[in-house]
Amino acid sequence: MEKAKSMSASGVPVSDEADKVRERFHSVLMKANKERPRDSDIKALRSLLDGNKELKLWEAVVGMGALAESQALDTILSGSGQGMRECWRKRLQAMRADLGYAESSSLERLLIQQVTLKGSRMV
Known about the structure:
The protein has five helices and two strands; from the N terminus they run E-E-H-H-H-H-H. The chain is mainly α. The chain folds into two domains: 8-60, no CATH class; 64-119, no CATH class. A two-stranded antiparallel ribbon has the order 1-2. A hairpin with a 5-residue loop joins strand 1 and strand 2 (13-14). The chain is globular.
């Protein structure tokens, strides 16, 4: 008999089962996140993502904006130390805050990320 799931206000299941699925997701993601993963690992990842849409497992992976920012910092500041990277991360964080990132819609957040990267002349 399947255990009943209680739902949070956002519609996300809150249960031991959901925690187990998240743990499994992270394990399978590590196996699938390789240059040449096994087909079975990719299928397992797809199955977890498709079979647990309400958990939004994909949100655990860094977004494109953060990925672009990280890549820009690594590329532009290659040869610089970690201190410069941290200063630039703080600068970009402050720019986003000035533009109201925290209160923005998803579309506005994408635009703010793009503007801060372009405006800082990093890309």
